[in-house]
Amino acid sequence: SLGERESGTGRLEEAVVAYRAALEEQTRDRVPLDWAMTQNNLGTALSRLGERESGTGRLEEAIVAYRAALEEWTRARVPLSWAMTQNNLGNALSRLGEREGGTARLEEAVAAYRAALGEWTRARVPLDWATVQNNLGTALSILGEREGGTARLEEAVAAHRASLEERTRARVPLSWAMTQSNLGNALLSLGEREGGTRRLEEAVAAHRASLEEWTRDRVPLDWAAAQNNLGIALLSLGQREGSTGRLEEAVAAHRASLEEWTRDRVPLDWATAQNNLGNALLSLGQREGGTGRLEEAVSAYRAALEEWTRDRVPLAWAGAQNNLDQTLNLLIERRASEAEKMEN
Fold first, then answer.
1. How far apart are alpha carbons 55 and 68 in whole angstroms?
2. Hey, how many other C-beta atoms are within 10 angstroms of the C-beta on 170?
3. What angle do CA 293, 295, 301 make, to 5 degrees?
4. pLDDT tens by residue, 56-87
5. Angle (CA) 272 276 280, round 5°
6. How far apart (Å, rounded) are the C-alpha atoms in residues 232 and 9?
7. d(CA 14, CA 9)
8. Do residues 184 and 141 make contact, with C-beta atoms less than 8 angstroms apart?
9. Is 225:236 a contact under the CB 8 Å cutoff?
């Protein structure tokens, strides 16, 4: 718990050592249910550690620990504990699936969440049910982005909306805001695949809703994340509508996110926001005359590449390089055109 509140990994590593020590005496043969509980707790510490570290090793260890816990925390014996561990297993599989290619881990995560819902029912534990619905929606959304079609994304939207039936603003305002943000992301992905603007408008509305509780004073990093997500949704909507108003709003949202997603504090998130700001400025520059917006976009992409290095995040680095190249080419063309007009 201390490790979750502090930065770095020191406390979480100590937690892992403590749980492993406990397992030397809390053996499966001697106290099977306590052994399972400690395996579950070990999995949680490893999962938190894996979120902060690069690579997949800690997440893979977390999955092993959760699966061990389920050997004794069976559905027949301790149904609510079994459901909790299924949810925890789903979280670790989902995070691992995000880092790996393919869909196998994400499909396993979806199966684990659906299993948890068999015991964590709405009638029995409404807030836990809502938590799993939210987590299920997130896994389905990532899965839907990797697969073709819209079926998974529609399921993701349905899961998040189900979660909001119990995760209400009055009851759990910060959890409500998180699910609104996740709903917005799923709606954006769905809207980008479908025609029209309805889903994109719903995505913008969901992200604006999340900002009502994820305020800068209360949760500054979540506020920055919501501003970033809002900017992405506004950019997509603005491109589809064909006006500059939404694009200007997108630029404003990304600039806001950079007020808290600073380079010192969260360098990779800062780079993400710089890249997204560049995308919004590029889109605006393509619609407007002159070179001002394009020059700003170039600056933003170059800033992103200061942290999005090839060694650290090769795919993100390649994407930003591609964006920068596209913008520089357009800028060269625009400058040549302006020079020609001046000569004439």
1. 22
2. 6
3. 100
4. 999 999 999 999 999 999 999 999 999 999 99
5. 170
6. 31
7. 9
8. no
9. no
Cβ neighbours of 140 (radius 10 Å): 26
Structure tokens at 216: 């800068």
Contacts of 179 (CB under 8 A, 6+ apart): 130, 134, 137, 160, 163, 164, 167
The residue among 216, 133, 138 whose CA lies nearest residue 181 is 138
DSSP, res 44: H
CB atoms near residue 216 (< 10 Å): 16
Q: Which amino acid is at 110?
A: V
* Token code pair at residue 250: 């997108």
Query: Each residue of 250-286: pLDDT tens digit?
Result: 999 999 999 999 999 999 999 999 999 999 999 999 9
Determine the Cα–Cα distance for residues 321 and 293; give it in Å rounded to an integer.
18
Q: Is residue 125 left, alpha or beta, with left meaning phi > 0 and alpha meaning psi from -120 to 50? A: beta
Q: Looking at this protein, which amino acid is placed at residue 201?
A: E
Provide the pLDDT confidence category of residue 294 given band limits of 50, 70 and 90: very high
Closest CA to 192 of 177, 202, 182: 202
Extract the runs of DSSP E, i.e. beta strands, from 136-278.
none
Indicate the DSSP class of residue 147: S
Question: Minimal CA–CA distance to 116: which of 100, 102, 136, 101?
Answer: 136
Max Cα distance, the chain (Å): 91
> What's the average model confidence in pLDDT over 128-140?
98
Measured CA to CA, the distance from residue 130 to residue 136 in angstroms comes to: 10
**Token digits for 247?**
């694009």
Residue type, 237: L
Is residue 167 helix, strand or coil?
Answer: coil
